[in-house]
Amino acid sequence: MHKLLLDRDPVDGDDLANQPTLSRLENCRRPYDLHRMGAALAEAVIAAHRRRLRHNGCKLITLDLDPTDDSCHGNQQLSLFNGHYGNWCYLPLLAFVSFDGEQDRHLLAALLRPGTASAKVGAKAVMKRLIPALQQTFPKAVIRVRLDGRFCCPDVLDFLDGAKVQYLVGMAIKWELARFEVGYPICKVGVHSWG
């Protein structure tokens, strides 16, 4: 099948790369190379939308960070068992961006993490890179960051307070405490914003 994709005869066509060759390719990358590849992705996506939105401008940019499970079948490095997802996996952190309430979300960053990584691992580093790039490219736009409850920790919230962005972070409900009537709603909705 792979040979067909490369316009090679499945039986008589030239061989594709073998496993040792692929392993050398995977392992020759240095952390600096990976960082530059991630920066190139973000720069390309931001530049494409700057060109697309140059006439109408942009009022609101929404940045979503989501961990997702990537199931593994074998003994890959960093493939670890995740009890929440119930399988051996990687747990990459993905950052998506959308503009002015559009339904389309565009991948802006991806960070490969071990299967047991907590949601917040790498989140601050990704936001430190993306938020200033978006603010510089779209200086008049409001930037809103959306995170689920797994990101809710003082470190991430302190960073968001200092980043001059709107943010919405889910808060986990402690059902053990929710059964007590204290006169307060279980959920409080709010947006922290600078004007």
Low-confidence stretches: 186-190
Beta percentage is 15-25%
Query: Strand order of the main beta sheet, please?
Result: 6-5-1-7-8
Question: What is the helical fraction, as a range of percent?
Answer: 25-40%
Largest sheet: 5 strands, mixed
Question: Key features?
Answer:
195 residues, three-stranded antiparallel sheet, Transposase Inhibitor Protein From Tn5, Chain A, domain 1, alpha/beta, globular
In short:
By secondary structure, this protein is of the alpha/beta class.
List the helices and strands and how they pair.
Blueprint: H1 2-5, H2 19-27, H3 31-52, E1 60-67, E2 70-71, E3 80-82, E4 87-90, E5 93-99, E6 106-111, H4 123-137, E7 142-147, H5 154-162, E8 166-169, H6 175-178
Parallel strand pairs: 1-7, 7-8
Antiparallel strand pairs: 1-5, 2-4, 3-4, 5-6
Helix pairs in contact: 3-4
Protein described:
- The longest helix has 22 residues, at 31-52.
- The N and C termini lie far apart (56 Å).
- It is globular, with a radius of gyration of 21 Å.
- It is 32% helix and 21% strand.
- The chain has one domain: Transposase Inhibitor Protein From Tn5, Chain A, domain 1 (Alpha-Beta Complex).
- Helix 5 links the parallel strand 7 (142-147) and strand 8 (166-169).
- By secondary structure, the protein is an alpha/beta fold.
- It has helices at 2-5, 19-27, 31-52, 123-137, 154-162, 175-178; strands spanning 60-67, 70-71, 80-82, 87-90, 93-99, 106-111, 142-147, 166-169.
- It has a five-stranded mixed β-sheet.
- Helix 3 packs parallel to helix 4.
